[in-house]
Design brief:
The chain is α+β, with helices and mostly antiparallel strands and about 280 residues long. The chain has eight helices and ten strands. The protein is globular and about 65 Å long.
C-alpha cells in the first residue's frame, strides 16, 4: 500500500481490512455501548478488558470446572496490579495466560486440590475469539485516552497498535503516543503481547519495555526463502494471523532480569521463521 493508495482509504481502514482478512472482527469504539446493553460487558471506560468475552472463553475452555473456580480465575486475572511495575505486572499475567490460572477446587468429601483454569487455547486457535476495537477508550487515574486499535483475544488486550499517516515517521508513534499511554493508562498494557506501530505501508513490532531501536520491521511472513517484502501487510500476516500469533506469543516471548527490573523480549523475524522451519 503506497501513500497514493491511501488517498482513497484511511490508514485505519486499510489496517481494518487487513485484520479482517486474517480472521479478526473489527469494531468501532466510538459506537461502543456500556452496561447491560454492551455486547462486551464493559460497565464503563475504566475497565481494560471485555468481560463478557473473557467469561465466555473461560466457560468454554473449562466446562468441567465449577463456576466458583472459573470466577476465581477471572478475579485473579483482573486483580489490581498497579503496585507492580508495568513489566512485572505483564510478566505475572503472561504466566497465567500461558500456563493457566491456579485455583483451589473442592471435592464432595471436602478435600481440595489445585487445578489450572485455561484462559487461551494455544493448540486450537479457532477456539478463541479475536476482536479488534478501533478508537478504544480507556480512562486512567487522571487522563482518558483513545488507542487507535486494541486487539482482544478472549476479551484480553493482547495487541496494541498505534497508527500514523504515511508521511509521519513511525518514531512519532513511539515518542508521542506509546510513551504517553504507558504513563497515563498502564492497565492497557498489563496483558500486552504485541506492540505495533504502522502507517499503512511501514510497520514495526516490539514489546512494552523495548526502546525505539528494538522495534523492528518484518520482511517475510511465512518462510525464510520468501522474497523480502517489508511492510505492514507482511508483519500482520506473520504475527497477527491467529495461529501464528499464538505460536509467537507462547513460544517466542522471554522475560529477562536486568539491573533495576525486567525486560520483555520477543523473537525477530528471522528467528521466528528459522526456528519454526527447522522444527
Amino acid at each position: 500500500m503506497t501513500p497514493a493508495n491511501l488517498k482513497e482509504q484511511t490508514v485505519a481502514e486499510v489496517f481494518q481490512e487487513q485484520l479482517e482478512a486474517l480472521g479478526w472482527t473489527v469494531d468501532n469504539g466510538y459506537k461502543e455501548t456500556f452496561g447491560a446493553v454492551s455486547p462486551y460487558g464493559r460497565p464503563n471506560t475504566t475497565l481494560h478488558v471485555l468481560p463478557r468475552r473473557l467469561r465466555e472463553a473461560i466457560e468454554g475452555l473449562n466446562p468441567a470446572l465449577p463456576e466458583a473456580a472459573r470466577e476465581a480465575a477471572i478475579d485473579e486475572l483482573l486483580r489490581d496490579r498497579s503496585a507492580l511495575s508495568l513489566a512485572r505486572a505483564n510478566q505475572e499475567l503472561y504466566a497465567l495466560l500461558r500456563d493457566g490460572v491456579p485455583v483451589e477446587v473442592k471435592s464432595d468429601d471436602g478435600s481440595a486440590e489445585t487445578q489450572r483454569v485455561r484462559v487461551i487455547d494455544w493448540d486450537d486457535s479457532a477456539r478463541n475469539s479475536y476482536v479488534a476495537v478501533r478508537e478504544f477508550e480507556l480512562k486512567g487515574d487522571v487522563y482518558t485516552r483513545r488507542a487507535d486499535v486494541v486487539g482482544f483475544v478472549n476479551g484480553l488486550p493482547l495487541v496494541f497498535v498505534e497508527l500514523k499517516s504515511p508521511d509521519t515517521p513511525l518514531r512519532a508513534a513511539y515518542d508521542d503516543n506509546f510513551t504517553d499511554y504507558r504513563a497515563t493508562i498502564p492497565r492497557l498494557f498489563h496483558f500486552n503481547a504485541l506492540t505495533i506501530f504502522a502507517n499503512g505501508s511501514d510497520a514495526r513490532l516490539g514489546t512494552i519495555t523495548a526502546a525505539w531501536e528494538h522495534f523492528k520491521p518484518w520482511k517475510r511472513a511465512l518462510r525464510e526463502d520468501e522474497p523480502p517484502a517489508p511492510g505492514q501487510p507482511t508483519l500482520l500476516k506473520a504475527v497477527c494471523a491467529p495461529a501464528r500469533m499464538l505460536d509467537f506469543v507462547q513460544n517466542f516471548t522471554l522475560f529477562v532480569e536486568i539491573a533495576g527490573g525486567v525486560a520483555k523480549v520477543v523473537a525477530q523475524n528471522h528467528q521466528f521463521l528459522g526456528v519454526n522451519n527447522a522444527i
